[in-house]
Amino acid sequence: MHLIVHHWDTDGITSAALLVRALCLEDFTNMTASIGEFRFDERIRKAIEGAEKLYVMDFNVPGEVEKVNIETLFIDHHTQPRIRNPKVKQINPSLDGEYYPSASLVVSEYFGLWNAWSALGVVGDIGERAFEVPRVNELLDREGLSREEALRLVELMDSNYIAMDRGAVEKAVAVLLSQGTKELLEYEPWVRRADEIRRTIEETLSSVAERNGFAIVEFESPFNIISKVARRLVWEMGFRGAVVVNKNFHGKAQLYFRVSKEEAERIDMAEVIERLRTLGTNTGGKREVLGCVCERDKIEDALKIVEEYLR
């Protein structure tokens, strides 16, 4: 059995689907981690024990991958150390100082397979800026998808993880593989969920504070909307960056810190991530963004660290 462990967002889902299509996999299981946590839980560990080969797609867990004892293909685009485990083949342009906006592009380039999924991974990770990438527009045009339809497809796919439905995230790979991309715009389970989430995001954006050009918003919700809120604040509303805190998310606290492209030149996000990890938080990210999950009593200490960079 081939096991695919992938991130829970559109880029992770499309990267997994591209891998299946490129390798013509039939006997495979795809799994995502506990949503919001960058680690292999017991369920994934047991699955790895029974797998003959492991694929880790768009999931920034180099520490976990370093410890695996089966043949592994690790494809990613996040900043991470080079893996020393001889059983692991690591494909990541960031190791050579190259920036790729999505893992889907890395997968497509590695296997030579390009379709709308390749483009949707980029749209999922960087939003409307994806349309500045010529290859993205070319792939969408080839499959007759407009920019608005691409953005809507990302909203639909991401609704699964935002609702914290791990099973639906995993099922999304099969849905993507079995249906035409345009047909997914009318896939009722995703449409219903996405519309409910959209209403919640609009309510959250109505309570934003500002400091030195950075947006700060705190709220409580069972929906995992912090990344969506941060993107809206930075990409659409023009803030230098956004600090978004969900103070009661299924008994935990979440912190999401996203900065503009310009601020990413000034702020060492890897440094911020390491400092947050010293608090015992579960934190991961890349050049322009980090996500942190911690106990509710640690969120104020985590917030103080991030606020040091809002100058």
TrEMBL record:
Residues 3-110 form the DDH domain. GO terms for molecular function: exonuclease activity. InterPro entries: DDH_dom (IPR001667), DHH_sf (IPR038763), SSDNA_exonuclease_RecJ (IPR051673). It comes from the Archaea. It comes from Thermococcus onnurineus (strain NA1). This is DDH domain-containing protein.
